[in-house]
Amino acid sequence: MSDPTALPQPFVERVFGVRRDEFVAVAWSFVYFFCVLSSYYMLRSVREGMATAVGASNVPWLFSGTFVAMLVIAPVFGLIASRLPRRIFLPWVYFFFVLNILAFRGLFALFPEGTEYFSNVGVAFFIWLSVFNLFVVSVFWSFMADIYSKTQSRRLFGFISAGGSAGSMLGPGVSSLIVVPLGFENLLPISACILLVAVICIGRLKAWVAVEHEHDAQETVASGRALGGKWWTGIAAVFREPYLVWMACGSVIASLMGTALYIFNIELAGQYFDITDTRVQFFARLDFFTGALAFLAQLLVVRHSVSKLGVGITLALMPLLSIVGFSLLAANPAFIVVAVLTVVRRALGFGLTKPTSDMLYSVVPDEQKYKSKNFIDTAIYRGGDLFGAWTVRGMQTLGLGIAGIALVMVPVGLIWIGLAILLGREYKRRDEAAGLKTAA
User: How many C-beta atoms surround the C-beta of residue 435 within 10 A?
Assistant: First the structure.
């Protein structure tokens, strides 16, 4: 009697690049990222509602608070990563944030909208969620870079990323349907429950690694050994290694452009919507359409783009789109153009740029996969937000409106393209050098 699972496997491998022996791990990775982003995106639209409530003019201060929080937390994370085995600190990162979510639910119950301290809780929530997002996603991709090889990452990261995009559709999709009747604060405990499922996925993946890599378990996430080193070594490498410097510079430019669009949306949404629940609903719908487009790109495009165009060209697609989009926005600075550009640009970022940029870390040492990557994904990225927010605010003070600011972003995109090409070449060089070393 033939194996009933034999027929679907060639189709899965041909379309999605997943081989039979990888299927269990990739399925758990897919669900893991689905839960992380479902949880986050249920809360993201709440964050934007808080930002709209305090006003677009205060966004630079919100990003300033976020950056300070990152500077405090990044060294603590590096210290924990140095001292604790990965199999221990990975799940506890998520347990910690679950407790935070439940604490904020309690604060919103104590200080509902319209009371004296509501805006203070909203500011604290904005800063906290900005930290939450980058840490939980950064930890996820560090984990993925740890358990999959360079060859596997090129085939599988697009499909795994699609799990996140599916979550980024479900989270805001559900939020947009229930936020008005239930109230935004009741999204928080639902988000916490979803994040707990991610911890289960970590456990299953660690078990898979322990079996698949039993002969080299001391080098994997299943190891009882910590990463070691000093808490600051990953941070120092970012300023010492040109490869990491280019990644950091690209992150700052991406943040600058994204922050400009973010401020435009906050400003215009504040003019169109009156209460927090309807603002949350608007931002949830933007996130839903972003997730839908990103899902298709990750599932069907990214693997083929990297294999046919290469890492550098694939990374250059985002700055190229940004140049075109900001040029259109300079010509027609309408709310609908801002919203559409936000959706398309973020979809391309999640669909192609993010999984491709995470492949860059598959050719660096383990300590840089966790510590340097986390520093770039958190402190550097939020530093870019801070730089972008105050830069945009400065241009507004000088009298530039949406059209003028959009025009300034066009040459910035050209610099970003150059960085993408440099990163692609260095990735290829390191990949080939590692292959020669293995062959020898």
Answer: 12
